[in-house]
Design a protein that fits this description.
Layout lengths: L2 H38 L3 H4 L8 H7 L8 E4 L3 E10 L2 E9 L6 H13 L9 E8 L5 E8 L6 H5 L14 H21 L4 E2 L8 E3 L5 E3 L6 E2 L36 H17 L14 H8 L4 H4 L6 H9 L6 H22 L10 H17 L3
Antiparallel strand pairs: 1-2, 2-3, 3-5, 4-5, 6-9, 7-8
């Protein structure tokens, strides 16, 4: 009889041991799942309507096997295709396929998913869904699906090649002014009104897209930074060990000295965009800028040589003549009015591209000044 309790004790120990092993196994599986989800980042379920689920096969069919005829753009981390995909009210979409062989592409996917998950603004490109899966060969596959922008990027309108559709179509002055207001409104939202402050880090014409009404939308959040999540010590770290945040010619000077990601960096990039839209000159590769950066080249030309540096494709004189219906003898007055308006805009661009971040304009002030410049032209029904 003395051995019976000993058997019960052994059985209890075995049961307890098995139970503990099961609990530990379940716990381990849970931890592994969380690690896997963390590495994958916010996937399609987190950023899309749960009913809009797409697979690799769906995207393959939508783009005709990712054919070159459907290719509409190539960026740092992937290629963008036009596709026929039923995403609710959107039958034609833009599909960004990440090149996962490119260093930083997976991180870019995670960043873009996270950034687009909680922001909503009429001047931001709308994300419809995402796909984190494998292709038919078992390789990792990641893609983002956006609403399609029929009028392409601002880059193609400003610097159209001879074989592109916009070669005979140029942006009017009022269109450029509207686009500048759209982009400024989006940045003001990202920096101050979208909940968690976000710095885009790559404002440039190729990341400004135009819908069928020529309304501008900012896209490509692959380099975006959540301002509240940047460790303070990172702000003092040398950029020599870090990837440059932005594109050459548009990136703020302080980004080349230290990793000081800030809204003021976006303001600088926006200022370069303003100057490029009004002069037609790129901030890099220009031989006619007298050896100066675009901001300093424009600053040197204000106010006496503004008419010389204006983008000749803008046809501002003709626009004003048609809008005001003034007699030909008042042509000089029209030209003077045009130069004054462009000068005001160029001064905003220069004000946004000051070397010191503290001296740059605030986006709220930029919007107010742009609206004031636009008001008389709206009254002329331009």
């Amino acid at each position: 009889m003395a051995k019976f309790p000993e058997k019960k004790l052994k059985l209890a120990i075995i049961i307890a041991s098995v139970s503990i092993c099961v609990i530990l196994l379940l716990f381990l599986l849970g931890v592994l799942q969380r690690i896997y989800n963390s590495e994958e980042g916010p996937d399609a379920e987190n950023i899309k309507d749960p009913h809009l689920k797409v697979s690799y096969a769906d995207l393959l069919r939508a783009t005709n096997d990712f054919s070159l005829t459907n290719l509409i753009g190539v960026g740092s981390f992937g290629s963008v295709y036009k596709g026929a995909l039923n995403c609710g009210e959107h039958n034609i979409v833009a599909i960004k396929v990440l090149n996962l062989q490119q260093k930083g592409a997976s991180k870019s996917f995670i960043t873009e998913c996270e950034a687009l998950r909680n922001i909503r603004h009429r001047n931001l490109v709308k994300n419809l869904t995402a796909c984190a899966s494998t292709d038919f060969r078992g390789n990792d596959f990641k893609a983002l699906v956006y609403e399609f922008m029929p009028n392409g990027s601002l880059e193609k309108w400003l610097h159209a090649d001879a074989n592109e559709q916009h070669q005979t179509e140029r942006l009017s002055f009022i269109q450029r002014l509207n686009i500048l207001i759209d982009v400024a409104s989006a940045l003001d939202y990202l920096h101050h009104h979208g909940g968690e402050p976000i710095v885009h880090c790559d404002i440039k014409p190729s990341n400004v897209l135009l819908d069928d009404n020529m309304v501008a939308r900012i896209g490509d959040f692959g380099l975006a930074k959540f301002l509240n999540r940047i460790p303070k010590e990172a702000l003092q770290r040398s950029s020599s060990s870090m990837m440059l945040k932005g594109s050459i010619g548009y990136v703020a000077p302080e980004y080349g000295v230290a990793n000081k990601v800030s809204p003021e960096g976006d303001v600088y990039s926006y200022g370069v965009l303003v100057l490029e839209m009004l002069t037609g000159k790129r901030p890099t590769g220009e031989t006619s800028n007298d050896g100066l950066s675009l901001p300093r080249y424009v600053e040197k030309a204000i106010p006496d040589r503004v008419a010389e540096i204006m983008d000749p494709s803008m046809n501002f004189w003709q626009e004003l003549e048609e809008a005001t219906a003034l007699p030909r003898q008042n042509t000089q007055d029209i030209r003077q009015k045009a130069v004054e308006s462009v000068t005001s805009l160029l001064m905003i661009g220069v004000g946004c591209t000051k070397e010191s971040p503290e001296e740059r304009m605030q986006m709220g002030d930029v919007i107010s000044e742009l609206a004031a410049i636009r008001k008389p032209y709206l009254e002329l029904n331009m």
